Fold this protein.
Amino acid sequence: MSNVFDNLAEGLDDQSTDEPILAGGLYTFKIFSIELKENEDQTFQWISLSLQLQDEAEDLDGNPLNGCFLNEMIGLTVNEYNSEEDIRREVAKFLDCFQGGRDWDESLESYKGMEGVCKTKVKKERTNKKTGDVYPEQAAVSVYMPK
């Protein structure tokens, strides 16, 4: 058995800290975690999802991925970007994908462990106009595929 700890100093200066990015495609994901979140000002609420890849997959460079998680959110606050109808539509798509029905569970607990197929894409690097925060290129769900 190889012990990485004993050799950590070798090549550490040249080690990239960039995470591999899942190539776009159709993949099965399991809901690893799901929770209701709210910002500090209590002006925005969302469902936070951590989706665990269940399929073999490759990164953008064609290298195999040893597991992968996508962190997604479903906004629940009506604002200039989301109407109440938009929010209900996104929740319905999520339920159609992972549950195959539309039985709403306010606790969110029953959704943990459910699997569904999602189409993914690579989101380009972007800057938040309000905060100036820069978000790197990353994989994201583009479509929750219905069961």
Observations:
- Residues 16-144 form a domain with the OB fold (Dihydrolipoamide Acetyltransferase, E2P) fold (CATH 2.40.50).
